[in-house]
């Protein structure tokens, strides 16, 4: 008798579960337009449901950058572990680092952030992606004005080409903010003369675009390659007095 009753109970329980499974699932209530916390939660849930790894990694990268620009650095960094592609991990490190300057993170907090990003970069098993991540950290440090930290990061890189690239990127950023002395120091650490001349050429143009023609000319004076030197001088002249011809010249008198 007990066996029959138990069997009937199991059949009824199965019917209940089957009925519940057929019911339409309740959808999450839409977020009010201004409720950023709600939207971020929904974004996290949506990302978790993405099946394609590449698209999920890309979404996580953008999500991490959003959190970083909201000042939620620890949460942003925690997302890196969910990203599978090593290059995307490096790009995420870059995005988080660049937020430090934009949100004016205090110096003490920036120092802690750099340590966290270095730790995340060290977890990247792919050598090239790891080196790229370090380049991005150096760029973020230079962008935030932490030039000594940027120099230490670049100097720690074993790959000569990527180390030179890091110094070059730092110099360009430093020139964009008008810091001639620091930009020259970064370029001076590049151990390849052709790469160094190329960076002098780029930095000279950056100064010229800012209207800092004295700094641009002083940078040109350091270029050894004649072709790059000529290009840099021409760039200064063009910035001083643009010579582009308008595509549509107005008609001359009597030609209407």
Any overview of this molecule?
This protein is mostly helical and 256 residues long. It has helices at residues 2-22, 36-48, 53-69, 73-78, 86-102, 107-122, 127-143, 147-155, 160-176, 180-188, 193-209, 213-220, 226-240. It has two domains: 52-157, Serine Threonine Protein Phosphatase 5, Tetratricopeptide repeat, CATH 1.25.40; 163-242. Helix content is 71%, strand content 0%. Helix 2 packs antiparallel against helix 3, helix 5 (86-102) packs antiparallel against helix 6 and helix 12 (213-220) runs antiparallel to helix 13 (226-240). The longest helix has 21 residues, at 2-22. The radius of gyration is 28 Å and the shape is globular.
Kindly state the number of beta strands.
0
Q: What is the third-level CATH name, the topology of the largest domain?
A: Serine Threonine Protein Phosphatase 5, Tetratricopeptide repeat
Q: N-to-C terminal Cα separation, in Å?
A: 109 Å
The domain tally reads 2
Secondary-structure arrangement, i.e. CATH architecture of the largest domain: Alpha Horseshoe
- Describe the main β-sheet briefly: none
Please tell me how large the radius of gyration is. Answer: 28 Å
Low-confidence stretches: none
Strand content: under 5%
Tell me roughly what share of residues is in helical segments. Answer: over 70%
**Mean of the pLDDT scores?**
89
Which descriptor suits the 3D outline?
Answer: globular
Provide a count of the helices: 13
Class by SSE composition: mainly alpha
Which CATH top level class of the largest domain fits? Answer: Mainly Alpha
Order of helices and strands: HHHHHHHHHHHHH
